[in-house]
Amino acid sequence: MELWFTEYTNKTSGITIKIKRQLDHRVSEFQTIDVFETHYYGNLMVIDGYIMLTEFDEFVYHENLTHVPAQFLQNPEKALIIGGGDGGTARELLKYPSIKKIDMIEIDREVCEVSKLYFKNLSVSFKDPRLNLHYEDGAKFVKNRTESYDLIVIDSTDPVGPGEVLFTEEFYNNCSKILKTGGILTAQTESPFDKEYINPIRQIYKNLRKSFNYVSMYLGHIPTYPFGTWSFAFASNWVDPLKSEIKNSYLPEGLRYYNRELGKSIFTLPNFVKEIIDE
Amino acid sequence: MELWFTEYTNKTSGITIKIKRQLDHRVSEFQTIDVFETHYYGNLMVIDGYIMLTEFDEFVYHENLTHVPAQFLQNPEKALIIGGGDGGTARELLKYPSIKKIDMIEIDREVCEVSKLYFKNLSVSFKDPRLNLHYEDGAKFVKNRTESYDLIVIDSTDPVGPGEVLFTEEFYNNCSKILKTGGILTAQTESPFDKEYINPIRQIYKNLRKSFNYVSMYLGHIPTYPFGTWSFAFASNWVDPLKSEIKNSYLPEGLRYYNRELGKSIFTLPNFVKEIIDE
């Protein structure tokens, strides 16, 4: 018997992955979660039919979302993660001794439960006392928050369906209000090769520019995400990554993707990508 | 009816593409060539079951293989292309008014014929009188050549099967001998995410370093190649891309990927890639 999982993009292409066995299937209050053991990619988490992460390449996504901003900060102490229920984003931020507290706002407790069972290399972060897990709606949390943060990381699903609110002008404005002076926000912002996302991506960056002085995009190579290329937004009212220098005196050891040269040059974009977001 | 083409990598994952119709199928002296019209990627050329190019993302591959080296040269006049039968690499180099002559050594005439029929945006280069097409074995051509070049571009198939000879120490040494003073060689060198290619890639760079003083790798985002990430080698006895400046006074207009900032920063690699090629 051969078992294959296939994720289709735009109904016209897809990635197909050979499966050893299905490890979990559950329907939460918010979504359907599946976990597979694969031949090449280690364990694979699928939400509503879309690949969320694999053990093989999650390091690219999580290191990009965290170290790129964290290295521009001198001593980041407080971080807010919206989403990120698998624990990978928290794991990377917890590598900084300067980090004293992380609030992580995951709407779906089941994602964390699944990660504890099948993604121990990510959910290891749940054991760190500096991490405070809140099972709440991220948009509401940010709207009502008065406490402020050095770093906000939006580790969300796509801007269609329940995740849509996390890409709006209002949400970004509320995030901007709870950033400390000097603070930075990063977010995942889809693939620039996806024709159906060109306009949504353009809108995301327009929305960000209404609340932040400096908004830049950077790209990562993520094989199991559509088109193998993923984009991230970097937004701040104080830090322009095109001109600022790396300020963090600490660089975690053992990173597999991020290094400081890359953390600067990663903001240099191909022409077709610049054309999407340039105003 | 739905028609899908699937290319499997390592028998454990693959990319699957929805097809409108098959445009061509022919068996040449060297390989099997198929052409499909797709829904998302325009026309698709497949050789021996592997995706060679699509109209959607061929610009990434061809611009990277050519402008990255050409911009480090003041006035490149003579170029040698090994392979490249679709015409895309020649198309990019012919954008430079300084280019007076290109020798292109394609072993399989049928690839050029197919490109003339279904990839007119690439085979347009065949009409330029500066392009000299030789239907020969690239390795033999280079071995017997005495004429020398400012730029050599190895636009080959994979280092398994007939293309293997184009990755050997002897071939690179022969290339090195016919580079003019100041000249540069580039080559496609597979995906660093492919576990089965980690050792072959390491060997390719070891081989290159035996014939060239400066050997660097750079990466491109190519959705329809395995893992969506492709690597390229830059080799020269005179130009170190990590330290040299862009010297070409001419930059072609309308490029969709390459720009000069990217042409410098593209040599900054993720840690896991550096580990493959660092000695």
Strand content of chain A: 25-35%
Question: Secondary-structure element sequence of chain A?
Answer: EEEEEHEHEHHEHEHEHEEHH
Largest interface: A-B, 42 and 42 residues
Q: How many domain regions of chain A?
A: 2
Class by alpha and beta content of chain A: alpha/beta
In the CATH classification, which architecture of the largest domain in chain A applies?
3-Layer(aba) Sandwich
Brief sketch in words of this structure:
The first copy, chain A, has 279 residues and is of the alpha/beta class.
Provide an overview of this structure:
Two copies of one chain form a homodimer. The first copy, chain A, is an alpha/beta fold. The first copy, chain A, has two domains: 3-54, Spermidine Synthase, Chain: A, domain 2 (Roll), CATH 2.30.140; 58-277, Rossmann fold. In chain A, 27% of the residues lie in helices and 31% in strands. In chain A, the strands form two sheets. In chain A, strands 8-7-6-9-10-12-11 form a seven-stranded mixed β-sheet, with helices on both faces. In chain A, strands 1-2-3-4-5 form a five-stranded antiparallel β-sheet. In chain A, strand 6, helix 2 (88-93) and strand 7 (101-105) form a beta-alpha-beta unit. In chain A, helix 6 (169-177) packs parallel to helix 7 (198-211). The termini of chain A are far apart. The A-B interface holds A 6, 10-18, 38-41, 57, 59-60, 193, 195, 219, 221-223, 227-229, 255-259, 261-262, 264-266, 268-272, 274 and B 6, 10-18, 38-41, 57, 59-60, 193, 195, 219, 221-223, 227-229, 255-259, 261-262, 264-266, 268-272, 274.
